[in-house]
Amino acid sequence: MKHSYKLSDAIHILTYVDIYKNDDLSSARIAASIEANASVVRNLMSKLKKAGVQDDMIDAALACLDEETERSNATKLARRLTHSIKEQSSRMQRQTLVNKLVTKGYSFEIAKQVSESIELDENDDEALQRTIAKAKRLYATFDQPKRNQKIQTYCVRKGFNISAIKEVLEGENE
Predict the structure, then answer these.
(1) Is there a contact between 110 and 101 (Cβ–Cβ < 8 Å)?
(2) Is residue 128 within 8 Å of residue 168, measured between CB atoms?
(3) What is the pLDDT along the chain (174 residues), one digit of tens a residue?
(4) What separation, in Å, do the N-terminal and C-terminal C-alpha atoms of the chain show?
């Protein structure tokens, strides 16, 4: 959602909750009324709660949230995100998935469950090889000692163990 729509969507949610306070206040239904994802609505409602909007109205809407649908939506999003994190260790990939899902408005519990359940395509050795190859291309203009240091730093930031990185680099130098 674009930043410029947040205010209008928040006003829409408040109006919707007030008008339909005796009806279905699920985030899915509210989301359909503003043509957005239910997690976006839940995130906005959380911000409205922090801003002082009546807790009982927002709690009623959040309680109607269908957890299985949210988990399914989070899984679909996580699968789409996996292509952009292939050059990370499996531990870092799972951590990145949790962070991105929480940022998108999913609860930490659902994000954690999804990240643990999703199958990652590769093992760490293949990902490390690919990451080192990319780092070598990025730092090709540096002299050898500085280049190796840059490659190691790059790979560590991607979540790989320094001893595994050094082992691969030393194996290539032999």
Answers:
(1) yes
(2) yes
(3) 444 466 667 777 777 777 887 777 777 777 777 766 677 777 777 777 777 877 777 666 666 666 777 788 888 888 888 888 877 888 888 888 998 888 777 778 888 999 989 887 667 888 888 899 999 999 999 998 899 999 999 999 988 889 999 898 888 766
(4) 52
Identify the sign of the CA torsion 113, 116, 117, 121: positive
Decide: 87 and 131 in contact? Cβ < 8 Å.
yes
**CA 108, CA 112: separation in Å to the nearest integer?**
6
- pTM score, two decimals? 0.57
Other Cβ atoms within 10 Å of 9 Cβ, number? 19
The answer to whether 39 touches 104, Cβ cutoff 8 Å, is yes
- Number of neighbours of residue 1 by Cβ within 10 angstroms: 15
